[in-house]
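The records we work with from here on pair a chain with its fold. Taken together, the tokens spell out the fold as the letters spell out the chain. To see the layout at work, look at the sequence and tokens printed below.
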Amino acid sequence: MNHLTTTSHQPGTVLQGILGENATLEPFNAVPQSQQFIALGSSNRLRWLLPAHPDARYFMESWAPQGFLRGLAWRGVCKVHHHQLSRLLPGCSAIGVSGVDIHEWTHQLFGGDQQGLPAIYVGTEGPRRKAVVGLVNKFGCEQVAKLAIGEEAATAIRTETNGLQTAQHLLGERIPRLIGYDSTKHRSVQSFIHQPLCFSPWGQAHTEVLNLLQTEETASLRSQMSELHDAAKPEEHQLIERFLSRCPSPVLERPLKLNRVHGDFIPWNLKVGSDPTSPLSVIDWEYYRPRGLPLSDFAFFTYFTLDFLSAQKIPSNPRFLKSINERSIVEFAIRSGLTPPDLPWVLVGALIENALARRQAGHEIGNAVVSGLLSRAAGLLNYLEFSTG
């Protein structure tokens, strides 16, 4: 018997951290089917540990990589695994695991009388790295557990727990139902939402989520930006000070309603039913904030879809600003206490707010998302200064 190694993308200390330090690698056919797994990796890193059973596809299909071609390839992988042929795919490893009873491990993780096998997704390397475990059986995937791996992942899971508890009475079945949270073992269990991801442009369904997350607390744009300045690093002060000196005083002083902020409002965290009138469901609340600018989630969605996913064709500042002309957003902004001319300035403030929130959550200033948000905010501020004289 060999302890799990870290060569290539094969399970290593990461998987021992998930399954237990006694987990041991065995030949695939030397263990019962419940102990058989398919290891899938990318860039020589383990990303999936899947039970060698077709039911795993119910959890696999809930995930999608960024990019059309990658998404197409992943759907092919899901079909291959469903037909139990994934061992034939390049880069896949068929492994057996001993030293831990998978059924008992699954029972302890999910509790109750839940039946099924664990399909494990291993997050991107970094301090917030987590394992996401889907409990799959012939009926689909009913529950999902999140386990901390990185040193800051426990904070992310605790933040999501707080977000789900707060948003449950506001959004109901539109978000996962929190089933359990263990602050000692840094893990949570929540229900699984059986809907496909929503890649539609921003529309009424997106804005309806913002409406439901609106608070009764009011604050001025100036006070919000001043709070950000106090928490910012020296290299971020200049942009905030420039914003406060250039933004028209009526916009800075106008009272506006604050919003609860999801913090990672992107297509990969949004789901919708087949009915065009279905409400939007929202998952992954690990960047939740109890208060923020009313356009924060809209700003992050717009940055992510227009800038981050379009590295080769980043839109101009005028085109970026056109996004705030979407009818439901204008109506939401008015309900928040804003006037249409305020929107470009509040959008810039929201981009800065998102960048600093990401950095405070553990991302460094050099992080691509943080630097991208700050760069877009600076570019829009330049454009607004020029266009308003």
Summary: The domain at 2-191 is CATH 3.30.200.20 (Phosphorylase Kinase; domain 1). The chain has two domains: 2-191, 204-387. Confidence is low (pLDDT under 50) at residues 1-10. The radius of gyration is 23 Å.
